[in-house]
Design a protein that fits this description.
about 290 residues, alpha+beta, Beta Polymerase, domain 2, 2 domains, 10 helices
Length: about 290
């Protein structure tokens, strides 16, 4: 549930964390990102976009008349840590301190492993200040995959990226669930499952319903059993589907659901459980149900 809550915060966006930030016209998204690339990246040890950084999320992919609340940039945590002489564990704080020393207004969000800054829109202060979120990533391919947003300019999807990710979470979580122990009455005491962690990848976890006074309503995570599985997008596809499918085949809600409904899906016996779980996640995230669910 912790990661659903984090994801809910992410998909609903944090709004203007930078006090004087303004909405960004779509035409100004790339010029603003390019200004950050030219002005800030060299000072924190980055080469540039499509090298050790990437634009992620929906900014720049909306209809021309729409605006974006911020620009999300995934940036290499390893490169920044090396440049600033920091450990990966402390690089978020080192980055925040460095940006402040350069005179930028910042807002740190440890839960998202990101630092937000105020940047001039399209490099022109007369246009106002845009919020740019520098999201530390240890694997840019994973960040591009998990934070992918459909391109609404070409009607790539009717639904924002949150729908794809919540369905992916349900598919992964229900396809790899195994009971570890039960009570004499057959109730589950402990179970293992795969989960999707936005900042990490696919992880096998163990949870327990056991409490001091009997079984708990909600299972508690047993952190010592966490086991990393993969953060390679092509491996994620292979976990769920047979055949020669690629990450682009599941980069929208419609594509992912369509593939789950085919014979290539490896776990057809849990389809019903997946869709019930997906519906619950949408309700928890306060998102309307798609037309083909419910």
């Amino acid at each position: 549930m912790k990661y659903i809550k984090l994801f809910e915060q992410f998909i609903n966006e944090s709004g203007n964390s930078i006090d004087n930030a303004q909405p960004i016209p779509q035409a100004d998204v790339i010029p603003t990102a390019k200004w950050v690339e030219k002005t800030i990246f060299p000072k924190i040890g980055l080469v540039g976009l499509d090298d050790d950084a990437a634009i992620i999320g929906s900014a720049g992919k909306k209809l021309p008349e729409q605006t974006s609340g911020d620009i999300d940039l995934a940036v290499s945590a390893d490169k920044i840590a090396a440049h600033l002489g920091s450990s990966l564990q402390n690089v978020l704080f080192a980055l925040n301190d460095k940006l402040k020393s350069l005179g930028y207004s910042t807002k740190m969000a440890p839960g998202f492993n990101q630092v937000s800054i105020g940047a001039p829109i399209a490099g022109d202060t007369k246009k106002g200040i845009a919020q740019v979120d520098l999201m530390l990533s240890t694997d840019l391919d994973w960040s591009r995959f998990i934070y992918h947003s459909p391109d609404f300019r070409i009607a790539e999807s009717r639904y924002k990226g949150a729908y794809r990710n919540l369905l992916l979470m349900s598919a992964i979580g229900n396809s790899f669930k195994k009971i570890v122990s039960q009570t004499e009455a057959g109730e589950t005491k402990e179970f293992e499952a795969y989960v999707v962690r936005l900042n990490q990848g696919i992880v096998q976890v163990r949870k327990s319903f056991e409490g001091k006074k009997g079984l708990l309503k909600n299972a508690a995570l047993l952190k010592e059993f966490d086991k990393f599985v993969t953060n390679t997008p092509s491996d994620v596809v292979k976990l769920l589907f047979r055949g020669d499918h690629s990450p682009t085949d599941i980069n929208t809600y419609e594509k992912l659901k369509s593939l789950i409904d085919t014979s290539d899906f490896l776990y057809p016996e849990v389809r019903s459980a997946i869709y019930k779980d997906f519906e619950r996640k949408l309700i928890d995230a306060k998102l309307p149900l798609p037309d083909d669910i419910g």
